[in-house]
Design a protein that fits this description.
314 residues, 17 strands
């Protein structure tokens, strides 16, 4: 475990790529979950994800080739199918039935590629990926994507959404938002809040920030205020001390010139707030028994909910 955070890696569905990044005939390497993965498409074009190291003698399969819809190791030519089974050894008359390449369940949703991680390779997915209606709604369009790599664990970053007080102290919002509802039910989470947004006139503008998610690695934040937008936030553990964060902004009425103009400023503002948070995330440590102010109970509620995604007790 990390020295700063007493947490193992959480389990769940996590973004590992975008579909266009994994093209037929190519092997893509990604570093997540404290290891390296190879992503590839089999002979039917279906996505596959495996741990990158050959269980024979440890060669990195990212340096291999795709052969007849299977993955061939660059070291000895052992060949693996999409299920992770050894199907051929070029210098033997039969494959090794005991040899297994660890597969990671993989799926496409919301225009993204997700892999299922659990420390127990035998534990399959426990829930489905949350599907976001805005990604297929013709009234919305993808405005932009922003990526951040942060030296902290996923729980510490995600907790920010339940910490209304920091919006004023760190981001100079006119006042802390008012959290109206926090529902943490099974793998689902909902937070509804009223929020005031800054404006050029100096007068705060009323609006809303409502968050809907499933599992630890993904949520959609719906904004109503200067614009109507949906932010798809995907967070994936690189290892116990590092997390990759993506923001995919979907804007309603993208052909409206005013909406597009406001969106540019809005997206810049939200991205700037992340860069303001990053040095705090990277310098802080976890406080197990925080001394909280009135109204900060949602922080503890969120921590209790998040704890279910640790297969190992922190």
């Amino acid at each position: 475990m990390s020295e700063r955070f007493p947490f193992p890696l959480p389990f769940g569905w996590f973004k590992v790529a975008e579909p266009a990044e994994v093209t037929a005939g190519e092997i893509v390497t990604r570093q997540y979950f404290g290891t390296e993965l190879v992503l590839w498409r089999d002979g039917d074009g279906a996505l596959q994800a495996h741990e990158a190291y050959c269980p024979h003698l440890g060669a990195h399969l990212g340096d291999g080739v795709l052969d007849d819809g299977c993955l061939r190791c660059p070291f000895h030519g052992w060949t693996w199918d999409g299920a992770g089974a050894n199907v051929a050894i070029p210098y033997a008359d039969r494959p090794n039935p005991k040899a297994r390449l660890r597969p990671f369940p993989i799926t496409e949703a919301n225009g993204l590629v997700y892999a299922w991680y659990h420390p127990d390779p035998a534990q399959g997915p426990l829930y489905d990926v949350y599907e976001v209606a805005e990604t297929t709604d013709p009234a919305y369009a993808l405005h932009s994507t922003h990526t951040f790599e942060v030296a902290t664990c996923l729980q510490e970053m995600a907790e920010n959404g339940y910490d209304a007080g920091h919006f004023e102290a760190v981001h100079s919002h006119p006042q802390a938002g008012v959290i109206e509802e926090v529902t943490l039910d099974g793998y689902e989470r909902v937070m509804r809040s009223r929020q005031e947004f800054p404006s050029r006139s100096g007068e705060p503008r009323p609006g809303r920030i409502d968050v809907f998610g499933r599992g630890p690695g993904f949520a959609v934040t719906r904004y109503q205020g200067p614009i109507t937008a949906a932010l798809l936030g995907a967070s994936t553990p690189i290892d116990e001390d590092h997390t990759r964060l993506w923001f995919h902004f979907y804007l309603k009425d993208p052909d409206d010139e005013r909406a597009a103009r406001v969106a540019e400023a809005f997206v810049s503002s939200v991205s700037r707030e992340v860069t303001q948070d990053i040095p705090i995330w990277e310098a802080k440590r976890y406080v197990a028994r925080p001394q909280l102010a009135p109204g900060e109970a949602p922080i503890l509620e969120y921590r209790r909910w998040f704890a279910q995604f640790y297969a190992e007790t922190p």
